[in-house]
Amino acid sequence: MVDINQQDERLNAALELFYYAYRVFTAQPDALLAERGWARVHHRVLYFVGREPGLSVNTLIARLGVSKQALHGPLRDLQEAGLVLATPSAQDKRVRCLSLSAAGAALEEEISSGQRALLAGIFSECGVPAAQGWQAVMGALAQLDHSVNRRPAEQDIQPIL
């Protein structure tokens, strides 16, 4: 029989680890964004647009799981800074397709490279089975987000190491 109190304590410990890990994972990007008076949503916009140039505004809204209103300010900030470009779609001129300028790509790289290095170091230190376990847990959590219409699909998940 499962001891509920013991299970709750393990889950509480997992929650705490998740919280502290996320704090470490976001500390450097948050500091870089704060220098510009920006927040994490600015980073998310740069990241997703950088990963998929030509992404429509509506698809970005779905990926981020935010409202059009919540995206408007950060997207405007990034466009005014010359980091994100919006061009009409070739198929439908009403649709705006987003891409990063050279400066936007450089900023996204600066912000995300520390996170990639952090993950690479931890995965290397913990080994392939741990990295695969982490990827399985994060993939399963991400699959619960039904607002995401493309990523991360199971076929998109590649082995980390």
Automatic annotation (TrEMBL):
Residues 8-146 form the HTH marR-type domain. InterPro entries: HTH_MarR-typ, MarR/SlyA-like, WH-like_DNA-bd_sf, WH_DNA-bd_sf. Gene3D superfamilies: Winged helix-like DNA-binding domain superfamily/Winged helix DNA-binding domain. SMART domains: HTH_MARR. This is MarR family transcriptional regulator. It comes from Chitiniphilus shinanonensis.
